[in-house]
Design goal:
Aspartate Aminotransferase, domain 1; 8-stranded mixed β-sheet; alpha/beta; Aspartate Aminotransferase, domain 2; 37% helix; 13 helices; single chain; binds pyridoxal-5'-phosphate
Length: 435
């Protein structure tokens, strides 16, 4: 495997051409492979668990478009639903029965969601949920957690500083401090910090937002007690609790984080899986909260392509296949098998794998972190150094050590066993022996 070279001429050519007309040649920064090096692959097609690049190399795909493709690439039922819709029109700017059907499916399966509205991305879903929470409570302040990603809207591009709660440090140029000054950031997994924050600021808080299971900066599995306290404190202080389930919605199971923790949020945001691979977001929750939205209430929110029929058709076809729950049990079994196989092969090394449902995260440190500051940057460098070697062996891992991996229905046990063998080989050359 060492030094294996594969042909990436076409991808390289496409990158050079694209970079002249698209900043960095990409429409989302991590696609540029800056952390891991190597040529970012231009993908020509996908089928099942595989993607094929412009040079016709095949890769077993553990990125799965960052989460939406729980059924794998080009699932025949999803493709058929999309084709059927496309033939009769792609967008009308008026309501369709498909919007009702997807909304009804989600409301019927997720208890905390009584009403839902669809938008076109996860970012838009979160942005709209925050505005809804502010409109409902009449308060401005929001609370997020260090290590959680909620899309790229201005008020959520905030970095954590040192100390218990920090306010208003933009994590991107172009974001005014005046906007982020209304966003507080706390560490995950820290009950004392929560208590202290709510004592001081709880009565000014519109909403606290947290990922179902934080999965955008490693996989930071939270203790139920921490989430339980967050629920209790938001309730006590009249603030709303938002579960951002853009990744975890219909990934952890049909009822997502609410069922996982046995805790109901007031609002939930969706994206990724509910669009079956089409651009979609959604936000929903209690009826009395959702009814502050225009035209019922004073909170403005809109979208030319919101509830787009092609996206609704793809999402509905996907969710219907998940409805009986059997797929989740099967995915979880396969993921557990893969995770234990890999951990066993590397048990003598400073390496671990975090796994939940059909998500796993490769981490080059011994203990699994629960908060962002406990992620070892050296471990991330190990991942980044070995990424290209694994890619050249035909396995497509996300191009950053902070990103999690997904398995789909199309990933077979055999594929997973072979992948574990190849990955373990590459990691062994990179990881330190555990002393
Ligand atoms: C992906 C993601 C988003 C942003 O969704 P986009 O569709 O990329 O805008 C928001 N929150 C979470 C938890 C996500 O994983």
């Amino acid at each position: 495997m060492d030094g294996k070279k594969i042909n990436t001429e076409k991808s390289q050519g496409l990158l050079e051409k694209s970079a002249k007309v698209i900043p960095g040649g990409v429409n989302s920064p991590v696609r540029a492979f800056k952390s891991v090096g190597g040529i970012p692959r231009f993908i020509k097609r996908g089928g099942g668990a595989y993607v094929y690049d412009a040079d016709d190399n095949r890769y077993l795909d553990f990125c799965c478009s960052w989460g939406p493709l729980i059924l794998g690439h080009a699932d025949p039922d999803v493709v058929a639903a999309v084709q059927k819709q496309v033939e009769t029109g792609m967008t009308f700017g008026a309501s369709t029965e498909l919007e009702f059907e997807l909304a009804d499916f989600i409301v019927g399966h997720v208890d905390p969601v009584e009403k839902i509205r669809f938008v076109s991305s996860g970012t838009e879903a979160v942005m709209s949920a925050i505005r809804t929470a502010r409109g409902y409570t009449g308060r401005d302040l929001i609370l997020k957690f260090d290590g959680c990603y909620h899309g790229h809207s201005d008020h959520l591009l905030v970095k954590a500083g040192s100390g218990l709660a920090t306010f208003g440090q933009p994590s991107s140029a172009g974001v005014p401090e005046a906007i982020t000054s209304q966003t507080a950031v706390l560490p995950l997994d820290d009950e004392d910090a929560l208590e202290k924050f709510f004592n001081e600021h709880g009565d000014k808080l519109a909403a606290a937002i947290i990922e179902g299971i934080p999965a955008n900066n490693g996989l930071l599995v939270q203790r139920h007690d921490f989430i339980r306290l967050l629920r209790a404190l938001t309730e006590k202080h009249g603030a709303l609790l938002i579960f951002d389930e853009v990744i975890t919605g219909f990934r952890l199971g049909l009822e997502g984080a609410a069922a996982y923790y046995g805790i109901y949020p007031d609002l939930v945001t969706y994206g990724k899986i509910i669009g079956g691979g089409m651009p979609v977001g959604g936000f929903g929750g209690r009826s009395d909260i959702m009814d502050v939205l225009s035209p019922n209430g004073p909170v403005y929110q809109a979208g030319t392509l919101s509830g787009n029929p092609v996206a609704m058709a793809a999402g509905l076809a996907t969710l219907k296949k998940l409805a009986d729950g059997r797929i989740y049990a099967e995915l979880e079994r396969k993921n557990r098998l893969f995770v234990s196989e890999l951990t066993e092969k590397l048990k003598d090394y400073t390496f671990n794998v975090a796994g939940v449902a059909s998500i796993y995260w490769l981490v080059f440190q011994r203990d699994l972190p629960r908060k962002a500051e406990n992620i070892d940057p050296d471990g991330i460098s190990h991942y980044n150094r070995v990424h290209e070697k694994i890619l050249n062996s035909g396995i497509y891992l996300p191009p950053s050590g902070y990103e999690v991996c997904f398995i789909s229905v199309a990933h077979t046990e055999e594929m997973l066993k072979d992948a574990a063998e190849i990955m373990a080989g590459a990691f062994r050359q990179e990881a330190h022996k555990w002393q």
